[in-house]
Amino acid sequence: MQPTPDLWVLVALVGLPFAAAAATPAVARQLGNRTAYYAAAVAAVCLALVASLAGTHGGASVTWVGPLSVTFGFYVDGLATFVGALASGVGVLVFVYSAGYMREEPGQTKYYATMLAFMGSMLGVVYAGDLVVLFCFWELTSVASFLLVGHYSEERESRYSARKAMLLTVGGGLFMLVGFVLLASATGTYSLAAMLADPAATRAAVEQAGLLFPIVSLVGVGAAAKSAQFPLHVWLPNAMAAPTPVSAFLHSATMVKAGVFLLGRMRPILVGDDWTHIFVTLGLVTMLIAAILAVCATELKELLAYSTVSHLGLIVAGFGFSTAVGAETGVFHILNHAAFKAALFLVAGIVAHEAGTRKFSELGGLWRDLPVVAGVTAVAALGMGGVPPFNGFYSKELLFEAAYHLAAHDGGLTWAYPVIAVVGSVFTLVYSLRFLAVFFGEKPEALGHVHRAPWSMNGPPLLLAGFAGVVGLGGVTAALGFPLAPVESFVGHVAASTLPPGADHLSFHYYLPTYVSPAVVMSALALGGGALTYLVWERVQAAVTGALDAVPPLGADWWYDTLVFGANRASTATHRTLWTDRLRTYATWTFAGAVGLGGLGYLATSVGVPLATPTLGIPLTVILAVAALAALAAIRAPSHVAGVLALSVVGFGVTVFFVLASAPDVALTQVVVETVTFVVFLVILDKLPSYYGRIQRSRAARDAVLSVLVGGFVTVTTLVATGATPDSIASYFVENSVPEAGGHNLVNVILVDFRGIDTMGEISVIAMAAVAVLTLIVMRERGETP
Amino acid sequence: MTVILRTVARVVVPLGFVVSFAFFLQGHNLPGGGFIAGVLAASAMALAYLAYGLDGVEDDVLGREVETAVEHVQHGIVRDYQSLYAAGLGIAVTGGLASIAYGYLTGTTIPYMTQTFRHATVPLFGDIELASALVFDLGVYAVVVGALLTIISVVGAE
């Protein structure tokens, strides 16, 4: 049994980036451009903490929301260690790189603070041991990425992209939350650690509740939105509006990896036939479509963005297979993808920084000026394309193997899986070669001398590519009998933590194949097809671009724009109807809406109205009659002052009613409130015209109908609400107010003791109302219209 | 406004404040409490505004210079009202933390905003009750007074 992790180490690990983010403004004032190294140091400490947790397994938590069995809990296993190391490790490199890339850029403080918070959120997602904690950090990554994608906030495109990323990923997160609530309702706890401690029992509980399919789908929507699976992938290509280091981080180690991480996390509990069909189909379709779109990209980062979508599809498909090979595909490809994709993004940043453009049509022959970068690109791009013996090849082989086995086992339509996988890989190779081609061939004349990048920028991609290269070479040495043991055992260990209970897990090996197997044949087809297609890629590009132009719904943004801008137009139209600058319109719609909705609710639930016989004494009857008369008088009042006075009579009548009903505290409140209202009216009355305008007959009739409806509705509501005889609650307060709170005034005791948090909410509303009034007045004074 | 109103206000406004304070203190056991007391204090102040005008209160009572309309919202007594309700919210929110801190120090878990009370004997007053909820009620009081007066004074200035 492995030791359990220490709660405080976990709290430190997740809390440190946030604390560091909060301290960033002060630090940045001291360090200026060297803030990057501060952030890198924080990431390095996080990496060390992740490493210190590596040997442990299990959960650690403190109670958070006891009654709902929500804990502030963490959970450590192989998968968490893996993705945590990825986030903090790539974090170190990205921060170092930022020192060069962001030099002299404006908004550095905001940049580093948000990046640190982004890393912290990701670590929170990774180590969350409770569904609620996971959800909170999950949405925090969306918020942080919103700020980062919209970093150049004065640019329209940045704002559009940031909003899009936020809408889609936060929206997906809400689906996931519903899935979590269903999961918790089936198992009785929100503790992920408890669920993972006995996945079989959790799964049995879920199946017994009949909730397996809904949960898999809902959690799947969350994961698909985050990891940009088709058709929710549309936000990711736009996210390149962010500074390049952000893209590298986002695409390789943080946000988009959160989605596949979630699949890995839930896999032991939920994997099954539903799971396989949903995620393998989703992943492979995404892989194919995004690979084709990547071939059509016109600039470096766009290509990389679509390529990320495609590779995430590969990982999702891998996790989709219920076999051990599937788990290994997912885990190993996360590792490989993070290495080559981060390296390539950093390369794209160097090219853009030094050459001043990212467009393919303006680039070429860069290896003469940037030899180191060209080498890095060769290793990383060939890995991305799945060319042996580079790292991406091996994980793709695993995908082919898993797809072939499933098809051979199930037959029928499942043969589509290996076919799609191979076709997708063909396009993967094509776009990888296109990226690499930037460094070779003729150098365009317009491209002047290209400077070499500083070492703070060259170093990180070099390290990443070096790692990718070593992993790739490991396959070659393994074929010769010397496997790269650390990588193999690590990937095997991580893959084991994503396996359902009872799965037979063999130790993980990868090697350059020396014999012919179905997967090898598929790889050969993919490589050959890719090489041939590369020769005619311009025609492919023209065909796809033509199709996209001819049929807009095929395009990535079409449905998003239709939906969002459609909603915008609809809201503008509604706005025009409702927002007429006349109080009368607002009141009409509000009252009509309330009566309509509430009335529908009563009708739908067929509420019975209890008809209590009134037991009013003579004094009460007199008082209420006076109030009713005063209300009639208020309607017919010839001037404002008379109306206000009549209304006050109603109010004070109600006060007397409270006194007679032995509720002195409520009566007191009523008196004071009535007085303030009256005084405020007096203050305002001066400014109003002294007469009422003439009212059209039809409008008066409409208002009369509406007011009768509202009155009737309120009456029914009161009868229904009081019909439930709240005696038990009342007697509870009567019995407990003195012993528990030491107060004899029930109303006040309820306000400040028993329901203190409600009161807190109410006073917040009062304060907000004051702020709102202030804002409106200030805006008007300045001549702005709200 | 009329002389009568001013004369009445001169007596009633201070009385209003005193009664408001009494309501606030006795609220736990007798009719009263932070909300009512706050509204009463606000209405007393509003009466002063009615009698003397916004500038009158600012100028004569507080001896400050009267600002122009926009400035009015940003400076002077309105600024104080804003700080008042902000402080009230702060008191209400942080006051509840005391129970957590107390629980932590004594090694138990006490939820946020748990209230308690003690009896104490004070000379002249005899046995009085000290309820921790009074702190929270003070927050309510401050928010109500600050927010209402902010609204009344800026709307009145219009």
TrEMBL record, chain B:
Q: Does the keyword Aminoacyl-tRNA synthetase apply?
A: no
Q: Which domain of life is it from?
A: Archaea
Any single GO CC term annotated in Swiss-Prot or TrEMBL for this entry:
plasma membrane
- The Na+/H+ antiporter MnhB subunit-related protein domain, residue ranges: 4-150
Bilayer-crossing residues are 7-26, 32-54, 84-105, 138-157
**UniProt-listed Pfam families:** MnhB
Quick check: keyword RNA-binding in the entry? no
Ordered alphabetically, the record's keywords are: Cell membrane, Membrane, Transmembrane, Transmembrane helix
Q: How does it sit in the membrane?
A: Multi-pass membrane protein
The subcellular localization recorded is:
Cell membrane
Q: Which InterPro entries match?
A: CPA3_antiporter_subunitB, MnhB
Name by which UniProt lists this protein = Na+/H+ antiporter MnhB subunit-related protein domain-containing protein
Species the sequence originates in: Halarchaeum grantii
